[in-house]
TrEMBL record:
Residues 482-600 form the Cyclic nucleotide-binding domain. InterPro entries: Beta-lactam/transpept-like (IPR012338), cNMP-bd_CS (IPR018488), cNMP-bd_dom (IPR000595), cNMP-bd_dom_sf (IPR018490), Glutaminase (IPR015868), RmlC-like_jellyroll (IPR014710), STAS_dom (IPR002645), STAS_dom_sf (IPR036513). Its EC number is 3.5.1.2. This is Glutaminase. Belongs to the glutaminase family. It catalyses: L-glutamine + H2O = L-glutamate + NH4(+). Residues 347-425 form the STAS domain. It comes from Bradyrhizobium zhengyangense.
Length: 615
């Protein structure tokens, strides 16, 4: 009998679906033997045609690899989009765009032809790439190549070296590129030092990379210039968007139209056998296989890209994002108030004006269409006095979305609506994106925790309608909801076993895991109850009890801290149990009150769940 592997061992050997897909591509396309290794640069002809490696990098920094993904090869034309992006940032868009066009040429990559203005058609063909390198050379002189190498290294997330043999081979056989260089000089696109520019260009093309490197580089393009492995902002989002635009129209040379029609992912190929594809906001793909088709593109690499796009429906123009999915919950404080336990006067005011505070919880990408939908949804119901937008589930905010948000906030300000943003840390990039457009608005407040934002909004409504929140007010046992219904004699006997405790701001009153040996009735001030992980369960003010779970638990399950100077009646549990035995009617009443308080909390929790599952 053959022993069956355990589920545990099978689990540890299992592969993620994307890795299994890449394995399938590797196994299936390895049988493809058409094409030829580039030989116009003699050193490139030495590449082993059997090499085949694939890598895919996600935007959270995970890198999948199969096959010969660590075999080095020269970057060649794969360098072009990255050097173009570098030039845009280093020299300014105006200078670069005035010298190099952005139109597809329809010609092979090494065509010796300029556009009607005697400028290169785009930076993806050799003429445009040499011009781009020339602009950097004009600015940096002898340091130009090192500037380029360092930039390529930052895109890859590691230090990249040069294949000196390939560099030498390219230099000796690069007459066609020299012809392009002198054509550019004749038309004043580059400076007089054509030899110096071409030396940098030949070295640039001879930088060594792997399929893994170019997958990470592609993912950096897909991630608005942030390397997902190192988290470094390599170039600006402006440079990335312009680079991806040119890659879309011209990255695959005279196959570019067919490529974008059938595959629909911005890409770039190189005669060294590499292809990279960058799907914005999704992933970066890199492949290496030296045999090329008639257009100079890796045969197997194209098949991998075709398979990925087709299998997962990744054509960038076939997006199915629905702006309506941006709203995960939409409610007022009548349906889901804050966790603060309020006195009757406050509850009455909030119940009468529950629609004065509108809360909209958002999820996913805060894009232009998402913000437009949210603003129309907000306007579809009566105008609130305070609108709370919770963004803690928002994964990213586009500049367009942030700007439209700010314009919506301006309109709300004109209508006397206060805006509260929650869920965004001030040290985050999302905060910077939002504040670019909202910093000058006077009607915007922010809190990191949603519950804190709702509590603040509730306080404003209480104040506006004549209520008061006096944290310094002192209350007696007779005002405690847990003791509701007890007679004067019973309250007097209870008071005789109480000790008044005083706590300074920030003092820890109850600790998780400690014995539950006392009850507390808050006399003045405010405290908050939190779980050990910091999640706040409730804020309590004078007249509320805490530690009451000692009646049914033996150890503490939450922490309690003083929000400000506070006093409380402390009742040792053993004394309280003796009181209950002496006053059985009071004991029954207290337990009924406790059951009602717990039921009220459960109702609030269930209401929140219903809101999140029904929106």
């Amino acid at each position: 009998m053959i022993a069956q592997p355990s589920h545990a061992s099978a689990w540890t050997r299992s592969k993620p679906p994307l890795l299994r897909f890449l394995d399938t591509c590797l196994n299936e396309f390895s049988a493809e033997t058409s094409g030829a290794v580039a030989d116009y640069i003699p050193e490139l002809s030495k590449a082993d045609p059997a090499y085949f490696g694939i890598s895919l990098a996600t935007l959270d920094g995970h890198v999948y690899e199969v096959g010969d993904s660590r075999v080095p090869f020269t970057i060649q034309s794969l360098s072009k989009p990255f050097v173009f992006a570098l030039a845009l940032d280093l020299l300014g868009a105006g200078k670069v765009e005035s010298a190099i066009g952005v139109e597809p040429s329809g010609d092979p990559f090494n065509s010796i032809r300029l556009n009607a203005d005697n400028h290169p058609f785009n930076p993806m063909v050799n003429a445009g790439a040499i011009a781009c390198t020339g602009l950097i050379y004009d600015s940096k002189g002898p340091e130009a190549f090192e500037q380029i190498r360092l930039a390529l290294s930052r895109f890859a997330g590691r230090d990249l070296a040069v294949d000196e043999a390939v560099y030498s081979s390219e230099s000796q056989t690069g007459d066609r590129n020299r012809a392009i260089g002198y054509l550019l000089k004749t038309n004043a696109v580059i400076s007089d030092n054509v030899a110096g520019v071409l030396d940098v260009y030949f070295r640039q093309c001879a930088v060594l990379v792997t399929a893994r490197d170019i997958a990470v580089m592609a993912a950096t393009l897909a991630n608005r210039g942030v390397n997902p492995v190192t988290n470094e902002q390599v170039v600006t989002p402006y440079a990335i968007s312009r680079t991806l635009s040119v890659m879309t129209s011209s990255g695959m040379y005279d196959y570019a139209g067919e490529w974008i029609y059938r595959i629909g992912i911005p890409a770039k190929s190189g005669v060294g056998g590499g292809i990279l594809a960058a799907l914005p906001a999704r992933l970066g793909l890199g492949s290496y296989s030296p045999k090329l088709d008639k257009h100079g593109n890796s045969v197997r690499g194209i098949k991998v890209c075709e398979a990925l796009s087709s299998h997962y429906d990744l054509h960038m123009l076939n997006r199915s994002d629905d702006a309506r999915n941006a709203v995960i919950a939409d409610y007022d404080i009548g349906k889901s108030p804050s966790r603060r336990v309020r006195r009757q006067q406050e509850r009455d005011i909030l119940a009468a004006h529950e629609q004065a505070v509108r809360v909209i919880e958002l999820v996913g990408v805060l894009s232009l269409s998402a913000v437009d939908y949210v603003s129309r949804r907000l306007a579809g119901r009566p105008r609130p006095q305070i609108a709370v937008f919770d963004l803690h589930r928002v994964t990213s905010t586009t500049r367009a979305g942030a700007r439209l948000f700010a314009e919506a906030f301006e309109e709300l300000a004109a209508l006397d609506v206060t805006v509260v943003i929650s869920g965004v840390r001030r040290a985050s990039k999302e905060w910077d994106t939002l504040r670019e457009w909202t910093a000058e608005l006077k009607n915007v407040r922010d809190f990191y925790l949603l519950d804190t934002a709702i509590e603040w909004a509730e306080d404003q409504i209480v104040y506006r309608y004549g209520g008061s929140i006096d944290f310094h007010e002192t209350t007696e046992l007779s005002e405690q909801p847990l003791l509701d219904g007890l007679g004067a004699e019973e309250l007097t006997d209870l008071a005789s076993i109480c000790t008044i405790r005083t706590y300074q701001t920030g003092a820890k009153i109850v600790t998780t895991g400690d014995p539950a040996d006392a009850l507390f009735f808050l006399r003045s001030g405010a405290v908050h109850v939190t779980l050990p992980d910091g999640v706040r369960l409730a804020t309590l003010t004078a007249g509320m009890a805490f530690g009451e779970m000692a009646l049914i638990e033996t150890t503490r399950s939450a922490d309690v801290f003083a929000d400000m100077a506070a006093t409380a009646f402390e009742v040792p549990l053993k004394d309280f149990e003796r009181f209950r035995r002496q006053h059985p009617r009071a004991s029954e009443r207290i337990m009924r009150n406790l059951a009602q308080l717990l039921a009220d909390r459960l109702i609030v929790a269930n209401t929140k769940v219903d809101i999140l599952t029904s929106t």
